[in-house]
Amino acid sequence: GAGVSQSPSNKVTEKGKDVELRCDPISGHTALYWYRQSLGQGLEFLIYFQGNSAPDKSGLPSDRFSAERTGGSVSTLTIQRTQQEDSAVYLCASSLAPPNEKLFFGSGTQLSVL
Amino acid sequence: DQQVKQNSPSLSVQEGRISILNCDYTNSMFDYFLWYKKYPAEGPTFLISISSIKDKNEDGRFTVFLNKSAKHLSLHIVPSQPGDSAVYFCAASNSGTYKYIFGTGTRLKVLA
Known about the structure:
The complex is a heterodimer of chains A (114) and B (112). Chain A is an all-beta fold. Helices cover 0% and strands 50% of the residues of chain A. Chain A has no helices and eleven strands. In chain A, the strands form two sheets. In chain A, strands 2, 4, 5, 6, 9, 10 and 11 form a seven-stranded mixed sheet that branches. A four-stranded antiparallel sheet of chain A has the order 1-3-8-7, with no helix packed on it. Chain A is globular and about 35 Å long. Chain B has 112 residues and is mostly beta strands. In chain B, strands 2, 4, 5, 9, 10 and 11 form a six-stranded mixed sheet that branches. Chain B has a five-stranded antiparallel sheet with strand order 1-3-8-7-6, with no helix packed on it. Chain B is globular. The interface between A and B is medium-sized, with 24 and 27 residues.
């Protein structure tokens, strides 16, 4: 597609369940980012991929969070044993190889943990 | 440690007037800066960027100014239009890395 696609757009889950969020970047973009925006907060960096490797996982809040990218394209962010504080909008972005390349964002996945 | 700060959470401006959104940063290694606009239920969209070798970049109604000595940048929108009402984020990076640090955003409301 022409833009970054994220699915699902909304996810409601019960505390303790696992969730998977998907991101399809723009074709040809080698860099992929996950950010999180909690209510009333800015964009919090989670993880960065260059190709299929993630040189920086420092933003992942806990070991319940993991992400992978396959074929240099699609990425999934998995949250295990979800907690209420995980409720946020999860945003994926892609870009040409950094540095100094603008990020193109998807519309995000609104995650609500009850 | 909030390396990129947008100290005004909200701003209201009359249609046709100038909107000025401010952003401060603490890391002197940052050398590339971007502004994004975000509407509700949508992802942020790129507006304008500036490299530290410049102090001004202009694109239509949008101008970004960079004051390196003060570690301050601002986005000017002239003239402001109701469709500009959105949340604006500034972001900064060090071109030696890939990581973009975002501010907390400023909600702009342009009054008709």
